[in-house]
Structures are given as C-alpha cells and as structure tokens.
C-alpha cells in the first residue's frame, strides 16, 4: 500500500444540543477530516476529533493542523506499508499529538480493510454484529433540564446514561436521576475536575451509594496514585479516561489498581492500532473496556463502532446515533441507533460513504498534497 494523495479538511458542524463539561460549554465542533488516496485508487477516511481548546488534553484543532501539515503528512505520503502498524512506525518519533495521529491511523485502517475486502470491524478482529450504545449528558443549567434530557434519551431507547459531574454539580443531580430511574445503567464522569481532598472523598463516597456502574476520571490525568487511594475506599469501579494515552499508562493503572474499568478512545490513544492493543492488555488482565467518544463526526464515529465490536468491549460505548449530535452528518447513511443498539457495518472499510460535498461546504480550509 502507498498513499499518494492526502487531503485534510478543517470542518465545522453545529451541535443539535449544547454540551457542558466540568471545563467549558460548546455548541459546535471543529474537527479535521483526513482523506487518503492510495496509488491504486482506494480512498480511506480518518478523523482528528480534537476539541478546539486544550481543556480535555493538550491538543487543539490548530495544533493538530500544524502537526499534520509539518510532520504527519510528509511522514505518510509516499511511504510503502503492508499493515497500518508499519505506517504508524513512520511517526513513532513524534511525541504526543495522539489525536492528530489517530486521524491518519483511522484512514490507514480504512484503506487496509478495503484492500482486503473486509469491513473495518472484521479487519480489527471484531466479533459482534451489533454494539450497545450509551449516551453522555452534559451539565445542564437546572435539575429539571437534566431530567428532561435523561427522559429524552431513555425514551429514544438508550439503556445507559453517563452524567458529567463537577464540584457543585454531583451528588444532587445523580440522586435525582437515580430516584427517577432506579434501574438505569448510570455512571458519572468528572473529567479530572476534583482535587484529592477529604471533601472530594466524601462526595465520591456519597456517589458510591448510588449504584453507579463506574466513576470516571475523578482526579487529574497524571495522578494515578490519587486514583488508587480513592479506589481502595470505594466499591464502585473507577474508570480512567484522560490518564491513559498509551499502553504503558494502562500497565500503570493495573499495577497500582488505580482503576478497574478502561475507557478506550481511538483519538486519545493515537489511533486504532494502540486502541486494539489496549483492548488486548485489558482483556488479559480481566478489566472490562468500553469505547469513549469525542462527539465524533460520522467518520470517527464509524471507527468507534468498528472498534466496539471487539470481544472485551463488554460495557456500552459512547456510539450514540449521529442524530444526537448533528442535524446532518458527514457520512451516508449516518450512524443509527435503534433501541440503543448500533449495527456493525459489513461493507468494506468504515462501511459508510463520506458526503464530500457536505464536507467541502463546511470546511474553512483544505490542505491538498500529492506525492
Ligand atoms: O470525557 O468522555 C469524555 C466529550 C468531550 C470531551 C470529553 C468527553 C466527552 C464525552 C463525549 O463524554 C461522549 C460522546 O462522544 O458521546
Ligand atoms: Mg471521560
């Protein structure tokens, strides 16, 4: 395989419903789409689903664009490879910038699957024909508005709901949702917003009594020891998200018992190869995983669906239907969830067509490079 042409599109789409986390609120997303054309005319797609601001991780849309233009496009263009991990070796010496790398990794995997006449899920080793989707709900201005959002998603058929929490918006909203839905598969995500303190421990113990499936990333990403100390006094599993950017981080989590569930994000782990490796390591350690989302457009969302078809993705993934986020997605058909379940495509590659006209109409700039 050789990639002879790369295009990177700087795409903006408005969100159907604004989303607030512990760090900030957003009403639209600005992701980069990567189109890779092989020497024999196959076209693969990837997505760089970085937030615009460096509040989730250190990357931004602008840093991703700069790294893509200066390092990743030159590394990828014209190089010859058999399997995606060989192509990824071309950027091994670039430290960090996992979201930027993930966009090129997904495009390479899409090409690789198409060349083998296989679905992306099949190429990755996926075994499920459908995956269970959950929704992630942001912080709402009032409890009533939160309950309205939960009701909307439960009525739409989703059986798992994750609530964003932050200091001042935690025990009370969780109790309210739990009281209204005693049997709902419910969990919380703090995005690292809590300091390690007696007060935070008291909040987490109160949440521990709410029968949550997990408490995601309560403390700062690099603070594995704080997570281990908290896990030792909680029954509810801690799930790590931001803390785990490579397989070494996962080994640290396992060695310290700093978490008992892993959220695998293709973007955060620098692409599908590392994401799959993390799945295997977690499986061997008996740690369940699920696929987290970054509000991906359809290209990244389709990659998440394919990854979620691997056997150890035993918890619902953030692969809700495109319509939860976007009035019109960049792929045709969009990702569709019925009764909270998404079918895994069987067509070659990501299994959806990219609506290039819609991509172009929503792009503020395009990088177009040929070998
Ligand atoms: O922590 O999972 C997170 C979105 C932006 C930044 C961080 C996170 C999220 C989500 C999105 O929760 C979930 C989704 O894509 O449905
Ligand atoms: Mg998270």
Automatic annotation (TrEMBL):
Alphabetized Pfam families for the sequence: MR_MLE_C, MR_MLE_N
UniProt entry keywords in alphabetical sequence: Lyase, Magnesium, Metal-binding
Main EC class the enzyme belongs to: lyase
Highest taxon above the source species: Bacteria
InterPro entries, per database record: Enolase-like_C_sf (IPR036849), Enolase-like_N (IPR029017), Enolase_C-like (IPR029065), Mandelate_racemase_C (IPR013342), Mandelate_racemase_N_dom (IPR013341), OSBS/NAAAR (IPR010197)
EC identifiers of the protein: 4.2.1.113
Cofactor(s) needed: a divalent metal cation
Protein name: o-succinylbenzoate synthase
